[in-house]
Structure formats: structure tokens, C-alpha cells
Amino acid sequence: MTNPDRNDYAGAWHHWMNRGARKRPTFLVDDDRRDFLDLLGQIRYRYGIETHAYALMTNHHHLVVRSTGGELAPAVRFMASKITRWFNRRHGFDGPQCRARFASVPITTDGQLATTVRYVHRNPYSLDPTISLAEHRWSSHAAYVGHTSGPAWLRQSTVLERFGDLRAQFRDFVEVAQPTDEFVLGVTSEVFEVPIADDSSYSEPSIGRFEEAALAASAAVDVDPRHRLHTRARQLAILIAVGDYGADPARCAAYFDSTTSAIRATLHRARRAARIDAGFAAQLEMARRIARSS
Questions:
Q1: How far apart are alpha carbons 271 and 286 in whole angstroms?
Q2: Which residues span the domain enclosing 268?
Q3: Would you say residue 176 lies in a domain?
Q4: Mean pLDDT value of segment 113-137
């Protein structure tokens, strides 16, 4: 068996690829793609994986990532477990969504980095050669050229610096055809054997402190017994962490094993409850006091 970590180290760059098990589609609806992008935000905080470019295709994906802590393999395991669980639950399937192996090409020079990002951003042409790359929703190219703002976790500056931070120059580099475009990158990919497993060891101390304060306040203040203690405590913790202290929703999602969209929905409900529910407001004030003093 190959060693999944032998070419990963703190600061390593990778062109990370995988495709659907038995070449089946990995994305059937837009929610599948949103879940995948949400997880890219989570592995930024959970494993220190910076995403610098991405393209989500029908039955495979391409990513350009930097492994700041040398934890690419556990990040892949985490994503494979989560995305498979959500995909199967949504569509009534079972079994793995992607192959149990992922391919990674080490990126070792600035020139290779730029060329790899170009290759990734041009992938949608394989779906439709007439497509406008700048308008393709499931690639980072639209953010790079200023068509959209892009996800908060997407890192663009390292690549754009090679083009003098001129987005128009980068756009021409990617979109203008070159004689070598019919050929794949001249680098041999290395296939890592990665068992699909969950890793739930992550803990974010500050969010944990808010959760402990919320649990204590929920138990201390007498409210409607129909409210579940842990559900109420989670709402309080998210409101304090994101609403009061400005914690990133993706970080909360990683801590609570949820999605960024679910965290934002919980935050909205919690803010509304604080306005109309006196019991919730009392718990919130107590939780805030506990958090400040802990």
C-alpha cells in the first residue's frame, strides 16, 4: 500500500483530483455542489487546507490546494465521509460517492502553479466548448476575473500576484487558447490510498467555551420543557459565537458537524427567538455572562 503522506508536508501544494465511484456522477443537483464547497470551507479551519482554485464537473472534481499543516490525507477522509453521507441521504443511495483513492500532483514551482490553475479553470470546456468560463457557477474562475466575489475561504492573491494583480491579464491567460491545450499536464499524478473514514477529533476551544456557557444557561433558566436542552444550547452558542464574537460560520459548521447554510439558518432563528421569547432572551443573557467570565 502506498503511503498517503509521503509527498505532503507543511506548505505543500497539490493538484487534488477524484472522480465518482465506477465513474458515476458525483453531483446530481446544485445542493450536492453547495455541500462540497461548504466542506472546502470547513477543511480550511479543521485541517489547514487552503483552496486556491476549484472546478466541479459532472463525475469528478479538480482542486488546487495548499496544505499548511501537512494534513491533506485526513482532510480527504473527512470530506469523503461527510459528502458521501449527505449525498446518499439526499438521493437514497448507499456506498461511496468517490473512489477510495484520490490523485495528487505535487506543485513545486510558480509556473506550474499558474499552469495548473489554468488547466482547472478550463475544465468546464469539456462539458461545452462554447461555455463562458467567467459565468460558470461551479468554478473559481468567475471569482478570479471579478465576475463574483467567490467564497470567503477561496485564496486568490498568490496566483493573481503573478499577473500583477491584473484580473484582465489572468483572464486572457486562462481563456485564450494555446497550442498545448489538447494535452494534459506533463506531470505524472500520484495516487494515494485513502480509506473512507470519519475523523471527529476536531475541537475549536472558543466555540466549545460558548457551547459550555450555553448549556449551563439552558439548564439554569426555567423555560418551556418542550424545548430540547441541547437544541436550545446550540442556538445560544451559535448566536454568541457568530453574532457576538464574529466567528466564521464555516468554523462553527466544522465544530457542530453541520453545514454553513444550516449555521446561518440557526443564527437567524436564534436572533428571532431573542426578540420574541423571554425565556430564550434570559438564557442568552446568562450564557453571555458565563462566556465572558470563563
A1: 16
A2: 205-293
A3: yes
A4: 90
Give residue for cell 457542530. Answer: 256
Q: pTM of the entire structure?
A: 0.64
Instruction: Classify residue 1: in a domain, yes or no.
Output: no
The phi, psi pair for 67, rounded to 5°, reads: -95, 95
The answer to whether the CB of 36 falls within 8 A of the CB of 42 is: no
* 241 and 132 fall within a common domain: no
CA distance 224 to 278: 11
Characterise 197 by phi-psi region: left (phi > 0), alpha (psi -120 to 50), beta (else): beta
Contact predicate 97/113, CB 8 Å: no
Cβ of 235: how many Cβ atoms within 10 Å?
Answer: 23
User: Distance of alpha carbon 183 from its chain centroid, rounded?
Assistant: 30
187 touches 105 (CB < 8 A): yes
Q: What is the pLDDT of residues 80-90, one digit of tens each?
A: 888 888 888 88
Mean pLDDT of the chain: 81
3-state secondary structure of 176: coil
